[in-house]
Design brief:
There is one protein chain. With about 80 residues, the chain is an alpha+beta fold. Helix 1 runs antiparallel to helix 2 and helix 2 packs antiparallel against helix 3. The protein starts with a strand and ends with a strand. It has three helices and three strands. The chain has one domain. The protein has a three-stranded antiparallel sheet with strand order 2-1-3.
């Protein structure tokens, strides 16, 4: 199984004063399932599915990272790397 950490974080700029820095797939899942603003978007569901598949060892961490970034954009947030 692949390691769960990404080599570079995904920095999520949202409406709060400080960005959220997501270093791992587990953090991304927690963020999506916690304070996420839109639980019904296509990219949201795809990100959760992809993250779970990769965490289960059946995919590449970069796939999960890209899916998470797409969900961030779908929610109307900005991504900084």
């Amino acid at each position: 199984m692949h390691g769960v950490d990404w080599p570079e974080p995904v920095v999520v700029e949202h409406k709060m004063p400080n960005p959220i820095v997501v270093w791992s797939m587990a953090e991304a899942v927690n963020y999506l399932m916690g304070d996420w603003p839109t639980k019904g978007g296509v990219q949201y569901h795809e990100a959760l599915r992809t993250l779970m598949v990769v965490l289960d060892g059946r995919g590449e961490p970069d796939e999960a990272r890209e899916a998470f970034k797409a969900a961030v954009l779908e929610a109307g947030y900005s991504v900084h790397e």
